[in-house]
Amino acid sequence: MADSFISLDTGRLSGFMSASELSAAEAQAAEAGRILLNGSGAGKDFTGWTDLPVKYDREEFARIKRCADKIRSDSDILVVVGIGGSYLGARAATEMLTPRYRTLRALRDRNETAVLFAGNCMSADETAELTELLEEGYDVSVNVISKSGTTTEPAIAFRILKEFMEKKYGKKGAAERIYATTDRERGALRKLAAQEGYETFVIPDDIGGRYSVLTPVGLLPIAAAGIDTDAIMAGAASAYERYSAGNPSENDCCRYAAVRNALLRKGKMIEIMVNYEPRLHYFTEWWKQLYGESEGKDQKGIFPAGADFSTDLHSMGQYIQDGMRFIFETVIDVEKAAHSVTVKEDSENLDGLNYLAGMDLDHINKQAMKGTVMAHESGGVPNIILHVPELTAYHFGAMVYFFEKACGISGYMLGVNPFDQPGVEAYKRNMFRLLGKPGY
Ligand code: PA5
């Protein structure tokens, strides 16, 4: 694996910052990295994820695999109930690492488990349509995930799904198909799970929601989708080793944190994560939540956005090329596609595409990427590139750890606590008051 690791290319930024601005940011990133490593920064009680890839609970890991095997043997559908950090990592992995139409085929053929997500919104339509689908006679398991055990969206969805499960399987049968991932002691979900006798998994006290992909929060649904969780942990462990050096010249994580903060200081306050593979859409959603909740506080932070190219070159492309110049891009370059699709010669050439004949579609996609990077740069949009050899479970683990660690470092550079999210309470207070919740 040593030669095919993810790597960061920041070599295209010299036109956007001076060498002294870059070296000042690098020195601050190195210092922020040291603070993260020695556990002396803000939110230090929530940095348990930093050495998780090398010290995770092997027994619990084996139990996750056993439960995933049971789900895969007795369920057509696993419904994963959770919101924010309690679902985005699993969704990023299942979208990235399983065949694009796996869910459709699984529901049609009923020979593998479709992983569906619920409790991440409060849409009546979404909820009703999921229940309608489940009522079509599928065998179902449910994994309800909430660290606090009190979040409204998943709690409502779970109340509905619990009723469905108990009606279908009886109380005892339902309990054998419901898995709860929550805090060791606190919260309504912990109490409910104990009372109903559900199999439970613990979210460690020192790991917050958006840093929890490599805990049971992410790993149970990921394993139930048939993804190799050993390979994910191996990729994360390699990343842990590589990014332990403090010097940004040897540490891509530190360098990423340094350059994005240097760009912010030059007025680039929006970062767009760009992909050219639709299966990376939810990885971007996971990254947006990680960076948005970690950095956006105290009136500080880079606003994280996402774009799926070349699709969005036909929508957001105009703004990125020509709009206000407060944007930079981080492009995920997947070096090797899993499939090959060749454009064929056509004797009539009515569409004028014979100049592409014999070319692989992935090669064409790559030229679109190179052309776009050049165009955006010349339009005043700096580009950082993360090269990812292939979309495998190993590289997923590496990418997760890379972005998590860089986020911790970057948050400290900004002078915020990257491990809390006080701002998300404001809407809840208003909503609870409007709904008449006691005490609000
Ligand atoms: O990252 C976070 O801490 C949040 O996004 C939470 O994951 C999200 O609010 C869900 O919280 P909980 O797992 O407590 O239901």
Report low-confidence residues grouped into runs of 5 or more.
Answer: none
Q: Could you tell me the strand content as a percent range?
A: 5-15%
Report Rg: 23 Å
Please estimate the helix content.
40-55%
Give the strand order of the largest sheet, numbering strands 1, 2, ... along the chain. 1-10-9-7-8
Number of helices: 16
Q: Ligands in the structure?
A: 5-phosphoarabinonic acid
What integer is the average pLDDT? Answer: 96
Major beta sheet, specifics? 5 strands, mixed
Give the overall silhouette: globular
- End-to-end gap: 54 Å
Sketch the topology as an H/E string, one letter per element: EHHHEHHEHEHEHEHHHEHEHEHEHH
Quick structural gist:
The chain is α/β, with parallel strands linked by helices. 48% of the residues lie in helices and 12% in strands.
Describe the fold and architecture.
The protein is α/β, with parallel strands linked by helices. Helix content is 48%, strand content 12%. Helix 8 links the parallel strand 5 and strand 6. The radius of gyration is 23 Å and the shape is globular. The protein binds 5-phosphoarabinonic acid. The site of 5-phosphoarabinonic acid (PA5) has 14 residues, from loops.
What would the keywords be for this entry?
440 residues; alpha/beta; 5-stranded parallel sheet; 16 helices; 10 strands; 12% strand
Topology summary:
Elements lengths: L6 E3 L9 H20 L13 H4 L2 H17 L2 E5 L6 H10 L4 H8 L4 E5 L5 H11 L5 E7 L5 H24 L2 E5 L5 H9 L2 E4 L13 H9 L4 H14 L9 H14 L4 E6 L5 H15 L7 E6 L8 H6 L4 E8 L26 H18 L4 E6 L4 H22 L10 H11 L5
Parallel strand pairs: 2-3, 2-4, 4-5, 5-6, 7-8, 7-9, 9-10
Antiparallel strand pairs: 1-10
Helix pairs in contact: 1-11, 1-15, 3-9, 4-9, 4-12, 10-15, 11-15, 12-15
The protein binds 5-phosphoarabinonic acid (PA5).
5-phosphoarabinonic acid binds next to loops.
